[in-house]
Amino acid sequence: MACNSCSTGKDGQPRGCKNNGTCGTDSCNKLTVFDWLSNMSLPSGEKPFHYVEVRYKNGRKGYYKNTENLTLGIGDIVATQAKSGHDVGMVTLTGELVRVQMKRKKVEIDGEESLKIYRKASQKDIDIWQKARDKEEPMKVKARQFAIDLRLQMKISDIEFQGDGSKATFYYTAEERVDFRELIKVFAREFRTRIEMRQVGFRQEASRLGGIGSCGRELCCSTWLTDFRSVSTAAARYQQLSLNPQKLAGQCGKLKCCLNYELDAYMDALKEFPKTDTKLYTEKGTAVCQKTDIFKGHMWYAYEGEWMNWHTLTTSQVNEIIALNKQKKKVASLEEYASELIEDTKVEFENVVGQDSLTRFDRPKGRKKRRSNRNNRRNKNRRKPQNNAK
């Protein structure tokens, strides 16, 4: 759902809201929930749900109680309660859908830890908030240098100031546990504010930074993916992918999330396949599985001792032979089954409309010879008048 400011201008150039991902109508962000109840009026006597969803930097969201009965809409900047002081965020959802979201995320309604909305942010609140946001980038450069000086195996990925500027949250990534007690002392002495350290995963960092994947499209985690499920190398094995870390790893350094997309389809297809370690017993010899093709439903077997000769069988044929072997019966050979799958593999190339001939690269060779012959003839003709003159 795009807002009106994202439409195209008269000159064909996109206008855009220039908010760099914090759209005023909150319709250009991957964390947006479409309010399909916004055009529906409440039944008579019903009051609007008294909780509001507020989003902050880095996709952080919270649910706050509207105790002052403020008239709030999506895109309003509000001052919310914090553990100490107040924070400033943007309203992203109101009404009954907030109740659904809280239930889905298991947030208790009217609980002891429920926070409330103080007021709509005034210009003074916004100025203080913007001033604190402007400090984040230069602070991040200094913070990374301090971590390097202390030889800590960590990376400061981002800094988020609280709305009133009284606290700074440092987001970092690390492979192992880091003792940053000395680092916090350096930060507090240098930046003169309360410090909170929060570790994030490598997938979350890639989601925040964004980028282009090996498929040529934007990263799923930075466009539409909101939950990060665990990915194991078993997903690559089931899909018969080579276990090459450089190809299976994404920009976050972990296994690609897209390995899970088609895994269920592969798992359903593999149910019809017999186990690859099951041997086939024939009168000619014992056959061992060498390869499987999940898409075509074929399996390749080779006799023990004749590993170079592979025989193609379908899964139904393999299951039939295995059933006979369980009855202590043997088939004559695999050739009688494999002969049914012999197909004419001859490919006839046709000249499609708009394409050149497949032998177009061979023509220039003949032309060069003709040109060289013509040049030789011309040179001979030029020499003849000289001989006649003598």
Structural class: alpha+beta
Span between N and C termini? 92 Å
Please state the overall shape, judged from the principal axes of the Cα atoms: extended
Strand coverage percent: 15-25%
Mean model confidence by pLDDT: 82
Q: Stretches where pLDDT falls below 50 for ≥5 residues?
A: 18-22
Can you put this structure into words, describing what you see?
There is one protein chain. This protein has 390 residues and is of the alpha+beta class. The protein folds into four domains: 17-121, no CATH class; 130-200, GMP Synthetase, Chain A, domain 3, CATH 3.30.300; 206-269, no CATH class; 280-341, no CATH class. 31% of the residues lie in helices and 18% in strands. It contains twelve helices and twelve strands. It has helices at residues 96-104, 123-134, 136-149, 181-191, 202-209, 220-223, 233-238, 245-248, 263-270, 315-326, 335-338, 363-389; strands at residues 51-55, 61-65, 77-81, 86-93, 115-120, 155-161, 167-173, 194-199, 280-281, 286-293, 298-303, 311-314. The strands form three sheets. It has a five-stranded mixed barrel. The longest helix is centred in the C-terminal third of the chain and has 27 residues, at 363-389. The N and C termini lie far apart (92 Å). The model is unreliable at 18-22 (pLDDT under 50).
Question: How would you summarize this macromolecular structure in one to three sentences?
Answer:
With 390 residues, this protein is an alpha+beta fold. It is built from 12 helices and 12 strands. The chain has helices at residues 96-104, 123-134, 136-149, 181-191, 202-209, 220-223, 233-238, 245-248, 263-270, 315-326, 335-338, 363-389, and strands at 51-55, 61-65, 77-81, 86-93, 115-120, 155-161, 167-173, 194-199, 280-281, 286-293, 298-303, 311-314.
